[in-house]
Design goal:
Blueprint lengths: L3 H14 L6 H7 L4 H8 L1 H4 L5 H10 L4 H8 L2
Length: 76
């Protein structure tokens, strides 16, 4: 079974970051998080990054979804 932190980062990378048409900076600004967080998520396999709950909540708020809906969407 995939580690939860990897599942979170993979979902965000595949569903939110990769389809984004703008820059990493514009994605970060639109999602109310620091650009370095987005870079870490995009490269989570190399960095073994673990997103904080507060950063995840900010991103979910920007996407107009709840944390509950986010975790249901992961389906690990």
């Amino acid at each position: 079974m995939q580690d939860i932190k990897d599942a979170i980062c993979e979902y965000i990378k595949q569903r939110w970051i990769d389809p984004w048409e703008g820059s990493t900076r514009s994605f970060a600004t639109a999602h109310d998080v620091d650009e370095k967080i987005i870079r870490k998520i995009a490269n989570y396999k190399e960095s073994s990054y673990s997103i904080s709950v507060s950063s995840l909540e900010k991103m979910c708020t920007a996407r107009e979804i709840t944390l509950e809906l986010f975790f249901k969407a992961i389906q690990r």
